[in-house]
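note to self: the first set is below, dont mix up w the second
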Amino acid sequence: MSAPGWWQQTTVAALLGTERREPPPLPHGLGVAARPDSTPETTLLDAAALGGALLRAHLPDRPAGDLPEPAAPDATPVAPPAAVQLLGLLLDQPPVAARLRPLALEHWLGVAADRGVRVPARTLPRLLALATQQSDLRAATRPVVGERGRWLAGLRSDWRWVLEPEPAAAAPTPVPADDLDRLEAALDHRSAKVRREALALLDAAPDSARAARMAARLRPLLTPTGRLRRGLEVALPTEPDAAGVRDGLTTTRGGSQRERWLELISAGAPLSVWTDATGKDAAHTWPLITQPAARAGVLRAVRARADLTWASAAVADSPDLLAYLPTAEQDAAALHLLRATKAAAGVASVVRHVPPPWSPGLSAAVVDILRHTAPAGGSASLALPSLAAGLHPSVRPAVSAWARAEHRWGSLPADLDQYLSFLPAITEAFR
């Protein structure tokens, strides 16, 4: 009998009583022998104890006699008792807001990895189950599970991620010349999906033959205006020929087809076409591009190519470009955007795109602006994870004062204060 079938029959016997339903014998494959003097009552109690242990350990059904090899000895020390106690709190009764529990757990796991310690064996099933559900925790979990954790991961297919290498961060990279030829050929592939994927990759390649063709289509549409070229007129393209359709200028239902073609041409052409037309650098050219479809296409090109120069030029109109800026420039750019906005939604859109952790200066500016800004819509809940991950510990007194003062931010200031107060306790518990 399989373990799930045995447990189901055990549950039925517990519900009906041993007088009405005989409890099933213990499965042989679990390696636990029945009592020689067992009664139906003791058999049921033993089954409940064994089944409860199996459920807590998240053990799967295994064929009879197919017992796993024991876990290898683990030379890595277990985390200190105080730290283990805090881990248990985070798993069972989080002392922080529910939305902040993953961040607090990541902090605990990160400190454990830095200290060269591991999670105790009894906590592994709960941690692995949680990290399986919340994949953001996996990278921080892998280094601290030890030999026992890797052994457990080998017993369950849904825990195998523990044994997999950490996926490398995807970063835009130049497309190799050999690949450009293959992508060019893929434009003639009979599969629409293959053609779409090739077009998306070619948008990131300003040196490709397709980019040169898009540049040839874009240049006649751009006309500088004024004596000093202080304006730029952008005309809409006409219906594309067969070569244009091959390059992705297809038609769709609804919307302006010509504006869509302009966006696609702008997304595929080299960004230098724009600066050549104006005779100015990117910072002075971007404000001259006022046609909505053209702006949308340029922004697509900036993101696809991770172009730092154009990201700096356009970040005021597209805060998501903050993530493309060098770390040294992000704070200054974010502060500039924050000072220009008076709405909470604007603050949330900025901080969401600044990689954590933030500098003390940026953190202080964010807290000060939010304290004097009324929330709008769901801006409070949207900002909470970003604020918790980014704020520097030095702003905790300001956050505490914000939580105590009258405000309309609901539980956000108190949740942040509680979270920032809890982090030092985690670090201290590992000493």
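second set (the one i keep forgetting abt)
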Amino acid sequence: MTQKIDVVGLGPGPARLLTLETRDLLMAGNPVYLRTAVHPTVAELREWGCAYTSFDSLYEQAPDFDKLYAQIVEQLLAEVEAQGRIVYAVPGNPLVAERTVQLLLERGPQEGVEVKLHTAVSCVDVVLEALGADPSEGLTILDALTLEADQLDFRRPQLVTQIYSPTIASEVKLTLLDRLEPEYPVTLVRAASCADQQVESLPLEELDRVTWIDHLTTLYLPPGGPETLAPLEYLRWVVARLRNPEGGCPWDLKQNAQTLRKYVLEEAYEVVEAIDQEDPDALCEELGDLLLQVYLQSQVAQDEDLFVLDEVALGIAEKLIYRHPHVFGGPTLETPEEVKRQWEDLKALEKAAKAGDQKLSVLSDLPAALPSLTLAEKIGRKVAHVGFDWPELKGVLAKIEEEYQELLEACEQDEPEAIFHELGDVFFTLVNLARWFKLDPEDAMRQTNARFVRRFQAMEAALAGRSLKELALEEWDILWNQAKEQVG
């Protein structure tokens, strides 16, 4: 005979809200198990002569809810194996915030047990009735025991169930305060549809001060303004508002991808500066400024029907997953070197797929807008990858000497065009030297610039009011050496 568990809901409160089907199943004579007997309907079940076993004793023994629910499910499976057919009753509707039911639906078929769900009135129905709220324009239902700030969406009403104690209410309040002001209006509903129903609206900051919170309590969060959106969505709203032809900002409305280009570069460099300064507050601010440029460029593109921000985010997410198969289900890689090789191989496959039948150069995908030193390093790295490189360091040094001599000759002949050409060659070979030693030429130049500025400013401070133009060369030299000792 097939083993079967009938899972029924006791509804939100009074027995009058039980379905006829559920009442018949409870009174049919099969063993009845309650997740908890702490429910308004249970007293009436006893009056009807319904015998039951509850799992309330397990609540005192289990170290946490995950283990508690798993233990309940194991006992139910053991009982149905012994009895053949049983009834498992839970508060409300079996499919609303009932973890044991979800576990049963997973484990039952694995054990050859049929798990049959029987619908019921849920707490959501009676809470909405108590509030006089219409969910037709959207409603989010959340579980207080697993609530995270990133689940919240204040574009529509939200119900938080299982606010069964002031402690849980306090934890929920702290989570909500990540997104809301302390004065944000919320509503608590207790024992909806019961004779002792309570409904109270209050500021969020007072949520855990309510003394009558118990296992029948639900929290209602009304929809809010744009400032209650998740931070990234809030920024999207702000940028869209700035670009709105009706009441937007005249300056933002005039911008396009090209006019905003310089700000992308400026903000990226300011991020780098904050990183170099090891200033987390500045880095946080500068990353925000750079993020604004991403949102602005995406909004401009959306306004021109080119693409939208979600496509930007989805594209990079899919690219990261594709290039990290060792993380997302592929073969495991053990070392950073293996990861880097795989990354380069996958990039090459992507490039080949884009090219189709057209043969691509090793240097076909270089971003021309890169800073010159960075671009030179990237060129050197790419051609070295296919073998165009000096086998030993002495070859690199000899090439630097050769280009330097050619620069000297151009200078001696006073040929500006040749000097310009040879100077670039010297720079390129020096970048190649940096690559050999795995050094970033941009970082090296940036640090040299910063070092020069520190020393020069130290010299200015040492002048004690004298004009820089008054100094003789020998004095400059003395001050420079003093500055080197003082500031490095």
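remember for set 2: The chain is about 55% helix and 10% strand.
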